[in-house]
Structure formats: structure tokens, C-alpha cells
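Reminder: ligand-aware prediction takes two inputs, not one.
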Amino acid sequence: MEKLRLLVTTQCPNKCPMCCNNSWDFDKLPVVKHFNYKEVMITGGEPLLFPDEVAILSDAIRNANMLAYNHEVSIFIYTALADGILTVLPHVDGVVYTPHSEKDIESFLKTNRAIGLFPEVARNKSLRLNLFANMKALIPENTDLSHWQIKDMVWIKDCPVPANEEFKKVGNLWEKI
Ligand code: SF4
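Here is what comes back for the chain with iron/sulfur cluster:
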């Protein structure tokens, strides 16, 4: 399998009624034992509740892959929390940002302004913006989204894992006490 979807936490400040995680029994999810993948997608819950841990984990996965398998891995973070994006961006290949609330949009607009002012922080990074229609409507029309690849989103029931991906978790899921 070339792609790993890696669950690092089940905690999330949002409580979306259609959250994929409502349909998963995480106790049954296998624990990751190696990182011999071409692509790793770090997901939750909300991984950017733990930006420092994401940075450390991403560097560790990259180094382990080079040492053990002598190939590069692309690492992406899936998040709805824009505040931590600039912290983790130097450590990952890209961000898939999906706002789920008005507060998420406010944070996103701040981060987007920062990227506009200092575009070098996003050089050679993949920035993807997934927008549900109600979130898209909250973004002012004159917002410069040129750094982002935008995808219109709809909720998909039970969020099936694509056939070319494995879904695993870290040994100890991250928790804020
Ligand atoms: S932001 Fe994502 S992980 Fe959090 S509750 Fe909503 S759908 Fe679930």
C-alpha cells in the first residue's frame, strides 16, 4: 500500500454531526508498525491541537523512511485548525484545510493573510482548501486564495477509506488533559 492515513488523536474542538469519526471504532484500528509508504496523511480528530508533536512526528517519519527504505515520503496534515498551520508547514509537504465553523474561517483568514505577506513560507508546499458551501459563503469575495487549490466539498456518509490507502493509528493517541 502506498498511502497511510494516520490517526494521531480523536480529540477535536468541533462537534460536526456528520463527522466521519462517529462511524469508526478506533479501538479496532491497527497500530502503525512501519512507515514504508510514499505518502502519509496525518489526521484526527484535530492534529493541530498538537502542532509541536506534528512537527516532531513528521521529521521522524521522514528520517525513518530515508534510513530504513532509502526513499522519500510526502507528508500531509489534515486539519480544520488554521492557527497551527504556519508552525507545521516547514515540516510537512502540504496541508489539507477544511474549515467547519465560523471560528475556523476567522483563523483561516488570518493565516491566509500571513501567507500572502510572506509567501516564501508556502513555497513548494501543497495547500489545499476544502470548502463546504456554507463555509465558502463566509469567505469575503475579495479574499486572495491564490495560494490554495480549492475543492468544493459535500459530506460523505461514513467516509469510506479509498482502496489504495491504509488507515492506522499511533500507539498512544495524543490527548490534551
Ligand atoms: S472538524 Fe473534522 S474531526 Fe472535528 S468534529 Fe468536525 S469532521 Fe470531525
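The chain has a mean pLDDT of 93. Residues 51-69 form the longest helix (19 residues). We will return to this case in the review session.
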